[in-house]
Design brief:
Blueprint: H1 10-21, H2 83-90, E1 94-105, E2 108-122, E3 126-129, H3 131-134, E4 139-143, E5 149-151, E6 154-158, E7 163-167, E8 177-178, E9 189-194, E10 202-218, E11 221-229, E12 241-243, E13 248-256, E14 266-270, H4 271-283, E15 290-291, E16 294-298, H5 301-307, E17 315-320, H6 325-328, E18 336-340, E19 343-344, H7 348-356, E20 363-370, E21 373-380, E22 382-383
Parallel strand pairs: 8-13
Antiparallel strand pairs: 1-2, 1-4, 2-3, 3-7, 4-5, 6-7, 9-10, 9-12, 10-11, 11-14, 12-13, 13-14, 15-22, 16-17, 17-18, 18-19, 18-20, 20-21
């Protein structure tokens, strides 16, 4: 969601999601041959190096005891929130991010400028932002509140969760305090701070409108567990913090719904969901997820007719990576997965979430249809390949 920057590059998202869980959004021509064959293993890319293997994520604050209700049982009006002190506390930790992305056009190659936001999670130069803020960028510059600008020396990203961590050569920075998004309640005041429209750091206020929201952000990609807020999130705000009235980061601003007739619908990635991603990016260099090694397509009437499927609901296997857990389990292109570890699955999203909810090394049962019969397979989930 940056200034002059395409929010999501659909083709890149498709490639990256297929690499991790094998999701596909068009039906490949996989069942034309009499006997579907397994796909050869793709070349293994270089594994990203960790930023800091010994990094320790900030601890969440202890839960505060609930306030006692008034003796009369009636609601007592409270004073207006002190937004001034909240913003003053958090603003020094918020940064502006400016990027240059090589872009092809009919006139040749040029550099497209983009703008976004981020926030300092560690005093030794670690900055959190969204993947789509820095995706494809040749140069990533980070400007602090005091005016100093640094070029990011390390960039680690996770397109699946739309998260990124940058390392700049600076120390003694004002790190933001991290809160706990699991304690949020609908109606709670929040403040969004960021480099709105690329014009510098500004703040907007609102409330938590909904929790645990899922939003499809591109073909083959859905973000889960989002915080919906009516605080204005404009282009350039992406990657900046959503904070509570204690000045603690409870979300990372990510998406704004921009359609005619839609007002006050912005979304932030909850910090509870984001912290494990941030932790992996810093300590490992990439995000470790369970991996099955299949290409997938949600069964619809087009697929049923084209491939003469005997079921009209489930997830069609379009490819199997050689040596992957699915390969070892005997799963083949053309199979339709209908259950995963005892739970029915009808869409790619449901299957992906089911895979990610299990652990690496865990044995799972997979129910699938092959031709006219149902069979059961057993697979041991492995670690997702690094990108």
């Amino acid at each position: 969601m940056g200034k002059l920057k395409i929010r999501y590059i659909v083709s890149c998202l498709l490639v990256l999601v297929v690499l991790i869980v094998g999701t596909s959004c068009t039906i490949p021509d996989i069942i034309g041959a009499p006997t579907p064959t397994q796909t050869p293993a793709a070349p293994v890319p270089a594994t990203p190096a960790p930023i800091n293997p010994t990094w320790t994520p900030p601890a969440s604050p202890p839960a505060a005891p609930p306030a006692a209700p008034p003796a009369s049982g009636r609601t007592v009006p409270s004073a207006l929130p002190d937004f001034v002190s909240v913003i003053a506390r958090v603003r020094p930790s918020v940064v502006a991010i400016n990027t240059k992305v090589p872009t092809l056009s009919i006139f040749g190659t040029f550099e497209q400028e983009g703008a976004g936001s981020g926030w300092i999670i560690d005093r030794n130069g670690l900055v959190v932002t969204n993947n789509h803020v820095v995706e494809g960028a040749k140069n990533v510059n980070v400007t602090l509140e005091d005016g100093r600008t640094f070029t990011a020396e390390t960039v680690r990203t996770d397109p699946v969760a739309d998260m990124a961590v940058l390392k700049i050569n600076a120390t003694d920075l004002p790190a933001a305090k991290v809160g706990d998004s699991s304690k949020l309640q609908v109606g709670q005041w929040v403040v969004a701070i960021g480099n709105s429209l690329g014009l510098g750091i500004s703040a907007t206020k609102g409330i938590v409108s909904a929790l645990g929201v899922s939003v499809e952000v591109g073909l083959g990609q859905t973000l889960y567990g989002l915080i919906q807020t009516d605080a204005a999130i404009n282009p350039g705000n992406s990657g900046g913090p959503l904070v509570d009235l204690d000045g603690e980061v409870i979300g990372i601003n990510s998406i704004k719904v921009a359609r005619i007739g839609v007002e006050g619908m912005g979304y932030a990635i909850g910090i509870k969901e984001a912290l494990p991603i941030i932790d992996d990016l810093i300590k490992v260099g990439y995000v470790i997820r369970p991996y099955l090694g299949v290409g997938l397509y949600t069964v619809d009437q087009v697929a049923v007719r084209r491939y003469r499927l005997t079921v009209d609901k489930g997830v069609l296997v379009t490819e199997v990576s050689a040596g992957s857990p699915s390969d070892k389990a005997g799963i083949k292109p053309g199979d339709v997965i209908v259950s995963f570890n005892g739970k029915d699955v009808a869409t790619v999203d449901e299957l992906v979430r089911a895979i990610h909810s299990h652990k690496i090394g865990q044995s799972v049962s997979i129910g699938l249809w092959r031709g006219n019969g149902r069979i059961n397979a057993s697979a041991v989930l492995s670690e997702s390949p690094s990108r």
